[in-house]
Amino acid sequence: MSLELLPQRMQAAIRIDEEGPHYNGTPCWVWTAEINRNGYGTFRVIITPGHRKRKMAHIEAYVIIKGDYDRVLLLDHLCRNRPCCNPDHLEPVTVKVNTLRGEAVLFKPLPKATEASQ
Asked: What is the band of 83 on the pLDDT scale with cuts at 50, 70, 90?
């Protein structure tokens, strides 16, 4: 994947992290600008004068480089690194698949009861 396909404004906000997380042998493209409360990169674009819209950096990078995808699906970070914008680290999946792959504690199965804990 080529970072050069992205607009200059986006390129300026991405750091290729050679020492950090990798997926399939490729480094994460870490968004270094605004990060939302969930850990994803965001930026604002002007729609009309006085009207702005917030965009998700990883979604925009994916669409620019790989093309559009069915928006019923979510882009799952296979590298498990939310600020990553590398399209090779993103996979369109259903909400269910994304939830099951997630690392949120409330989605982890409870451990089976053992005799000692009963």
From this structure: very high
First to last CA, the chain: 53
The mean per-residue pLDDT over the stretch 31-42 comes to 96
Q: Considering the entire predicted model, what is its pTM? A: 0.82
Spatial CB neighbours of 38, under 8 Å, sequence gap ≥ 6: 82
Q: 47 is written with which tokens?
A: 């729609």
Q: What whole-number distance in Å separates Cα of residue 23 and Cα of residue 15?
A: 16
* Average pLDDT taken over every residue of the chain: 89
**Assigned token pair, 25:** 């042998």
Helix, strand, coil percentages, rounded to 5, for the chain? 30, 35, 35
Q: Give the sign of the dihedral formed by CA 32, CA 63, CA 65, CA 45.
A: negative
User: At the top level of CATH, which class does the domain 3-108 belong to?
Assistant: alpha beta
**What's at 40, amino acid-wise?**
Y
User: In this predicted model, which residue has the larger pLDDT, 37 or 105?
Assistant: 37
- What's phi and psi for 25, nearest 5 deg? 80, 5
